[in-house]
Write a structure and sequence with these properties.
The complex is a heterodimer of chains A (485) and B (144). Chain A is an alpha+beta fold. Chain A has helices at 37-43, 48-55, 114-117, 121-131, 147-156, 158-163, 169-173, 191-197, 222-228, 244-264, 282-317, 319-323, 396-402, 416-423, 428-434, 444-449, 458-467, and strands at residues 12-15, 18-21, 31-34, 61-75, 77-86, 91-92, 104-113, 210-219, 234-241, 277-278, 326-332, 334-343, 346-355, 358-359, 378-381, 389-393, 405-406, 438-441, 472-484. Chain B contains two helices and seven strands. Chain B has a four-stranded antiparallel beta sheet, with helices on one face. In chain B, strands 3-5-4 form a three-stranded antiparallel beta sheet, covered by helices on one side. In chain B, helix 1 runs parallel beside helix 2 (62-78). The two termini of chain B are 25 Å apart. The chains are: A alpha+beta (485), B alpha+beta (144).
């Protein structure tokens, strides 16, 4: 099979917010990128378009190889990539999920207003920094899981954590897939993966993971905002983290397995990081069982942190304040899930890989919480620590065109090296404090690498989402307190 | 031996060049060290303390051998919280019928610096160990 020639990625404008990558070389289908002229200009300096084309080469792909507006260069799949594969004829690829299996976002709303929190904001962020271990290899001393307990988390996800008193049953109503994917098998994980999971449940981690205290700055859709429990001026908490070392180890372990499998099944890989196996194969099934277990660990991880965040608010602002902290939603943005979708007039079960992309099911869909069925599934879209984040809802048109997917965040526009250079000797924490944003971080390096200018303006991403008709903004939130690893 | 940091939008990586495979793999370990936020001096430092342990690896080709090498070092640093000093390393490229092999002696110690960046994985994206005019070259990208 001819490979895609890196030098000849051609992009054709479909309309103001869609670009087609025509089939060429080994591509089995075309690519479709959601971007406006400004975002596309940035993309031309990035190799993400080649990655969209490479994904289109994989066997059993259904529909197009898609890229959300926050697309940027990843490894294998682009970050912001979405691709669906036929359940029988298609492949499952760990590279289409990522190392941080079920990295995702949780949003909690509260009845508190900014003026309630401001006088004690420093103390609040200090306590959150303590309560949510962050930084390289962050571990918990107070929660160390035995083998059976870890197996429980891997099978039951957020439900296991709630069952042990960390959270409320109604949290589960507001988590994608109710916080647990079926088919998880702890026995599919290596000893190394299990070892890494023992003491990291309830930890934030490092890099671009964060916990933020935010304020609802602007409401765009009052009806949807009311359904989500979000009101202008109210305080919210957003948590971004995933499956920690356990998930990374699962990905590592299965990439080696899948490289051998791809060779055995005669799958020509345009990029080894797209290594894969047929979904029905023993290798494919084993990876799915392990991936689901790691995904459940991530659900449990965010549930534990949400519970700790509530405890922190209770300690500072009283039990009533914590009682009002309801989970708005919790989404995955690195995952592969079996869903039914229609493509080319045929309805079928496909395995949708979302790598740095979020599920986005529209109003009426039976898989979204009942209280949201008249507005659509919330889509949580973090920006950066200096500007804002968004909550959106899906649209029916978007669902049909994107296998029910949307963007997951702002997307980086600058490498970590460039970001550190652009910061130079600036006191970023001090600058943010001057703007009323309290930051606590394990290292100055992380703060420098996560500076706002390293990211696309998420407003531009949202603009494309709305203009392309694949989503609708509900509220914008601005950060007032940030915990970073 | 020369190491150059790569400019990757989402992740971190490096290119290492050396006249032979052993210094290439030592250089890759140094690149990993820098990516972790540690000092790059993992090579040939005469120290005492800790324990010297052998490490033997084999793989179908040099690319996979390099990934395996970096993964083992990463596991020990991040999960066992031990820091490596490479005493010696020997690499054989194999020839298609015989695997590529690595044999190393590494002094592992508990004390010292702590990593300031977490690496999720050693990726195969763009990874290539290849000959060039001056010897050998390898490109590695880490997921962070």
């Amino acid at each position: 099979m001819d490979r895609v020639d890196e030098l000849k990625i051609r992009v054709e404008r479909v309309d103001d917010h869609r670009w087609r990558i025509p089939r060429t070389g080994g591509m089995r289908t075309e690519g479709l990128v959601f971007a406006d002229d400004g975002l596309m200009e940035q993309l031309r300096e990035d190799r993400a378009l080649l990655q969209v084309a490479n994904v289109a080469c994989l066997p059993g792909i259904v529909g197009r190889s898609l890229a959300m507006p926050d697309i940027h260069w990843g490894y294998g799949f682009p970050i912001g990539g979405v691709a669906a594969f036929d359940e029988e004829e298609g492949v499952i690829s760990p590279g289409g999920v990522g190392y941080d299996i079920n990295c995702g976002v949780r949003l909690l709303r509260s009845d508190l207003e900014e003026r309630d929190v401001r006088p004690r904001l420093g103390a609040l962020v200090d306590r959150l920094f303590e309560a949510l271990p962050s930084g390289v290899g962050a571990r918990r001393r107070d929660v160390v899981l035995g083998r059976d307990e870890l197996a429980g988390v891997l099978r039951e996800g957020a439900g296991w954590v709630v069952g042990r008193g960390h959270g409320r049953p109604d949290d589960l109503d507001a988590i994608e897939s109710r916080g647990a994917l079926p088919g998880a098998d702890p026995d599919a994980l290596s000893d190394r993966a299990l070892r890494r999971g023992r003491d990291q449940l309830g930890t934030l981690g490092s890099g671009n993971h964060f916990a933020e205290v935010q304020v609802v700055e602007r409401v765009f859709d009052p009806c949807a905002a009311a359904a989500l429990g979000l009101e202008e001026g109210r305080v919210a908490v957003m948590i971004h983290s995933g499956s920690r070392g356990l998930g990374y180890q699962v990905c590592d372990d299965f990439i080696e397995l899948m490289l051998e499998a791809a060779d055995r099944y005669g799958i020509d890989l345009p990029d080894r990081q797209l290594c894969c196996a047929p979904i029905p194969s023993p290798e494919g099934r084993r990876y799915l069982a392990a991936m689901n277990a790691a995904a459940n660990y991530a659900f449990g991880n965010r549930q534990m942190m949400a519970s700790r965040a509530r405890d922190t608010f209770a300690a500072l602002f009283g039990r009533d304040a914590a009682e009002g902290m309801r989970t708005v939603y919790d989404v995955c943005h690195n995952i592969a899930k079996f869903e039914e979708h229609e493509s080319d007039g045929v309805r079928r079960r496909v395995c949708v890989h979302r790598k740095g992309a979020t599920r986005a099911f529209p109003l009426g869909h039976p898989e979204i919480p009942e209280r949201y069925r008249e507005v659509g599934q919330p889509v949580l879209i973090p920006g950066d620590m200096g500007r804002y984040s968004y909550v959106a809802v899906a649209t029916e048109a978007g669902y049909a065109e994107t296998f029910g997917s949307s963007c997951h965040g702002a997307g980086r526009r600058m490498s970590r090296t460039k970001a550190r250079r652009s910061v130079g000797g600036r006191d970023v924490v001090g600058e943010l404090a001057d703007r009323g944003i309290e930051v606590r971080s394990d290292t100055n390096r992380t703060v420098a690498e996560e500076v706002s200018e390293a990211y696309k303006d998420v407003k531009d991403v949202i603009r494309v989402v709305e203009a392309a008709g694949i989503g609708r903004a509900v509220v914008r939130l601005r950060p007032i307190g940030v915990v970073k690893g | 031996m020369r190491i150059e940091e790569l400019d990757h939008t989402a992740d971190v990586g490096f290119v290492v060049e050396a006249e032979a495979l052993a210094p290439l793999f030592e250089g890759a370990a140094a690149g990993l060290s820098v990516a972790l936020g540690l000092s790059p001096g993992l090579v040939g430092v005469e120290e005492t303390g800790g324990s010297v342990e052998p490490l033997e690896l084999s793989a179908g080709d040099l690319d996979r051998l390099l990934v395996g090498w970096l993964r083992e070092l990463l596991w020990k640093v991040q999960s066992e919280r031990r820091l490596p000093r490479i005493v010696e390393v020997d690499v054989n490229a194999g020839d298609g019928r015989r695997p590529a092999t690595l044999s190393a002696r590494i002094r592992w110690s508990e004390a010292g610096e702590a990593p300031t960046r977490e690496i999720k994985g050693v990726t195969y994206h763009g990874l290539r160990v290849e000959r060039n005019a001056d010897g050998w070259r390898a490109l590695v990208i880490f997921d962070v």
